[in-house]
Amino acid sequence: MKPLKPFHFEVMWLGHDDFNRFINDSWSTQEVLETNLATLQQNIDKWHKSVFGFVEKKKTKLLARLKGIQNSKAYPFSFLCRLECQLQSELESLLRSEELKWF
C-alpha angle with apex 24: 101 to 99, nearest 5 degrees? Predict the structure, then answer.
């Protein structure tokens, strides 16, 4: 077993729906503590990269889509307004996660 790198807990993980599932799925009562911790760390590292990775890229993409909607000549139509609300919600969630990274 290779040595573990230092583990860094991210507060933003607590706000994500899948976090508890990763804890439960990574833990086995049949294994020793060291093995459980190593498995947990590997799973969380992969999960973190897939869920929270590329935050700046996601934020830039959301902002561009919002700007496109707001500049559209068809903007007042309800489907664009619903899409704008959905994108705003995604952006707010992303910004909250980004803010929690500093704690």
Answer: 10
Concatenated DSSP letters of 65-88: HHHHHHH-TTTTSHHHHHHHHHHH
- Residue 1's pLDDT is 55
pLDDT digits (tens, 9 = 90+) for 43-58: 888 888 888 877 878 8
Boundaries of domain holding 31: 11-52
Domain assignment present for residue 2? The answer is no
75 Cα distance to chain centroid? 29
Q: Alpha carbon of 18 to those of 34, 44, 61: distances in Å?
A: 23, 10, 24
Q: With a threshold of 0.70, does the pTM exceed it?
A: no
CA dihedral for 20, 22, 25, 30, sign (positive or negative): negative
